[in-house]
Amino acid sequence: MALENMGYLTLEELKAQTVYPTEERFRKGPVAVIECTHEIPCNPCEGSCKFGAIKIGDPITNLPGLVEANCIGCGICVAQCPGLAIFIVDKTYSDTQGTVSFPYEYNPVPEVGQEVDAVDRSGKVVCRGTVVKVQNPKSYDRTPVVTVAVDLDQVETVRSMKRL
Amino acid sequence: MAWESGVQFMIKKEVVVIGGGPSGMAAAIEAAKRGAEVLVIDANEKAGGQLFKQIHKFFGSSEHGAGVRGIDIGRDLLKEAEELGVEVWLNSVAIGLFAEKQIAVETGTDDAEKIVRVVEGEKIVIACGASENVVRFQGWTLPGIMGAGAAQTMINANRVLPGKKILMVGSGNVGLIVSYQLMQAGADVVALVEAAPNIGGYVVHASKIARAGVPIYTRHTVLEARGEGRVKEAVICEVDGKWQPVPGTEKVIEVDAIAIAAGLKPLAELAIMNGCKTKFDPILGGWAPLHDENMESSCSGIYVVGDVTGVEEANTALEEGRLAGVAIAAALGKITAEEAETEKKKIWDRLDGLRSGPHGEARMKAKDRQLADFRQLSAAEI
Amino acid sequence: MCLRVEDHVVLGKDEPGKTVEITVDGRKLAAKEGEKILAALLANGIIVNRYTVKRKEPRGLFCGIGQCTDCAMIVNGKPNVRTCITPVKEGMVIETQHGLGKRGAIHD
Fold first, then answer.
1. What is the C-alpha separation between B303 and A105, in angstroms, rounded?
2. Chain B residues with CB-CB distance to A120 below 8 A
């Protein structure tokens, strides 16, 4: 399995092992994709969501479950997850493009408008992307969240960008 | 104060904590909070142990500081200890632990004269932490080859890169996290090798470095390091089911540093020196002193906390330290036994939480064995 | 090649601090006061701290926290100084240590 010897999950594995947003939910706008499959004793994501869209409960090792109806895709949880395992995917950005928001803790942080190499879960460059938003407020505690616009067919593949 | 051939006798404290990392500081704080007079001895020029190298956000329960970076937990611990009046001796190494709970402490830096003092503690907490294991391969002594913790110290504490093209050996959480942090500091991690068939640490940590483009080679090891005066090349190869190199699978990688993350072992020497009963447990990293539910060792009044009692992580170290601090406060009569029980129960619940899940299960069982062994030992002595 | 981590997304900008001059094997180098000697040397691209007694092999940073002694050097004439935990002071004279560092005896 990719997870245990490559370090990342394939999309198919993710869909099988996590509460993955439905197509119907994707069509409504931005939503959190929680790529946490390891039953870690960890729950800051649950507390960070003011909308009750992430459920862990007791025991603390439960996998975080997305309540997709409650999720508004605000992205607060992205910077709160110590494992950097939450992403916001928006398939409604335009007719041809969607966006992916990911935590990006490297210097230099890209600037809005910058063209970057978008990479998949394995670090492979899959397409070019345009940075449309960079958030790094104090509450994110030095975990900048970068939003990149890519072609719609890449939004479930792109998970970061090549370091600058 | 009496001086005798350069050795200063005899300072007495209610509680002496050896090691000012997370477990030692937590013990000091909990005891001081309840009125105990506490001295912490730390070998470094700043206390906090490895917390000041841990720039990532910690896992755990959001009710207890999860999501906070290690460096910030360290800063808060030192501040709290200071506010509580905990005395800290820096650049101070416990060079001996003797009967009557006397500790010989050497203070100073290597470039100057040092002084030796002997301090007596009514209660002693051993919180020395752990040291890194090494992997020996041809050329492993070449400059540029170091422990992963050393690499982490350089980038996050000293803010200097030990290399720019680094091979990481080992995929436990240390290997994964330090790989990530090396890239945050501006280096490239050219590969990570892991002899086991699977990645050892949390997959979320592995995923961070995977999407940063680090090739992870499981069932691989490093065969040889080459270079004159500095490592320039690493030869890696596949290993078979018996951990033996598979001929013909060698790959040569250009590197200027190799970081070794092969686990840690408890720094239990002081406890052993003092006669504390120990047991070997590979899950806990090797020989570790046994203890009861209060973290008290087989030597009455000597407590063992954190990695010394079995290698885990900072969160469990903090909780073990708190347990000892509360137990000591009760033993010194600062709080009632009932108050202590209530507090200890809460801490044990949190510890059980941190040791739960598939990743914590082996450690939970090992720690349970340790407690059971201690009980058996006590029963045998009665 | 810049080896100092000057800007960092989590740690922020490195504080410049006071620059002092040290002498390493006769060479004048700039270092930051209070930083570890080893860090100052690494920043200047020096990674060999000593040579072993018998085989005269080079050694450098290994544990970084004062446990292994691989980074020992002669500082102001005093051998066996663990450079990874000893802070830089103005005017320090630092020498690569050969063997046990008794000058004239094992020194080349």
1. 39
2. 211
